[in-house]
Amino acid sequence: MKIREVMSPNPVCCVPSDSAQRAARMMCDHNVGSIPIVLDQESRKLVGVITDRDLCCSVVADGLDPKSVTVEKFMTLNPVTCREGENVENCERLMQEHQIRRMPIVDGEERVIGILAQADLALKEEPERVSKTVAEISKSGKPSSAA
């Protein structure tokens, strides 16, 4: 199965200058746990990712003002990505290896065109495969490199 068959297309995106509060509001409004950060909304060229955990642990826990700090300071740069034409198995392997719950999907010019989340896999993949992916992503001790 190809990623394009499973991914959620056209995810909402932030730009580096957006406030932490704006990113958090977008996560709430769209019921997502991470948001791709793009150079600008027109090009949608991926530059990073911000997660709900980034906002909680780096903004809220440190007592910073989410209205004034920008996501640029807390985003993960150069996130691991996949392309829509790849096999889902390759993406699952990368998600396991890098402990990523939500994988940005980009086109040939690094423009964000989708997200592949654990939830997408749970709805379309065999339960045994999803179970393995969730277990590998959830192991402690490995540093996370993205969402």
In short:
This protein is α+β, with helices and mostly antiparallel strands. The chain has five helices and seven strands; from the N terminus they run E-H-E-E-H-E-E-H-E-E-H-H. The longest helix has 12 residues.
Tag the structure with descriptive keywords.
7 strands; globular; 147 residues
Question: How would you portray this structure in words?
Answer:
There is one protein chain. The protein has 147 residues and is of the alpha+beta class. Helices cover 34% and strands 19% of the residues. The protein is built from five helices and seven strands; from the N terminus they run βαββαββαββαα. The strands form two sheets. Strands 1-7-6-5 form a four-stranded mixed sheet. Strand 5, helix 3 and strand 6 (102-106) form a beta-alpha-beta unit. It starts with 7 loop residues before the first strand and ends in a 9-residue tail after the last helix. The mean pLDDT is 89.
